[in-house]
Amino acid sequence: MTTETETTAPSILAAIAKVAKAPKAPKADKPAKAPKAAKPAKEKPAKAAKAKPAPKPRKEKPMTETAPATPEVDPIDALLAEFGSVSFDDKDFLRAMLQKAYDAGKNAKKARAPRAGGPSKAEQAAELLRRPEGATTKDILDLTKWPAVSVPAIARSAGLTLRQEKDGRVTRYFGTAVTPA
């Protein structure tokens, strides 16, 4: 049993290839170049032509801006449903559909899967900075086993404001959460 997505994927790719092969219209400010003369083709015996069925008439749908998709409706599924009822001869419609798909992908929120192995080393280092006693560079290096560390960079990536206190030769860093103004 095939799903609708599996059956429309080859037709979508065929439509994209067809649009990509279509010649572009010349720009208004530049004169159109004359096409190069084609070499005469070698005569080949004619094959029996297969009769193609006449294309089904397309129901005219006005192109309107769609409202932002609700969280329950996947924008890709909505585009596939709209795309399934279209003839591939309408280049403007295909171009608009591809633009919608591009915009939907471009504006989609990047989803990140949570780490399977627990917090990362950078997150662990940020937790050291959040402790009431703070952390030294040596504490962070011992925990992460990194050869070097930039404590301000870790604080920035964790969204912490950094305060440092120097006790002799040792600098202790304290990270506090940034409060939005």
Commentary on this structure:
- The chain is α+β, with helices and mostly antiparallel strands and 181 residues long.
- Among the domains are: 1-18 and 71-107, no CATH class; 121-177, Orthogonal Bundle (Arc Repressor Mutant, subunit A).
- It contains 6 helices and 3 strands, in the order ααααβααββ.
- The chain has helices at 4-21, 75-83, 91-107, 121-130, 137-144, 151-157; strands spanning 135-136, 160-167, 170-177.
- It has a 3-stranded antiparallel sheet.
- Strand 2 and strand 3 form a beta hairpin.
- Helix 2 runs antiparallel to helix 3 and helix 4 (121-130) packs antiparallel against helix 5.
- Residues 1-7 have low confidence and may be disordered.
Reported by name, the CATH topology of the domain at 121-177 is Arc Repressor Mutant, subunit A
Computed over alpha carbons, the radius of gyration is 30 Å
Distance between the termini: 56 Å
Biggest β-sheet description: 3 strands, antiparallel
Question: From the structure provided, what is the oligomeric state, counting identical versus distinct chains?
Answer: single chain
- The helix/strand order is HHHHEHHEE
β-strand number: 3
Structural class: alpha+beta
Shape verdict: elongated
In spatial order, strands of the major sheet run 1-3-2
Percentage of residues in helical conformation = 25-40%
**Unreliably modeled segments:** 1-7
How many separate helices? 6
Describe the protein's topology.
Elements: H1 4-21, H2 75-83, H3 91-107, H4 121-130, E1 135-136, H5 137-144, H6 151-157, E2 160-167, E3 170-177
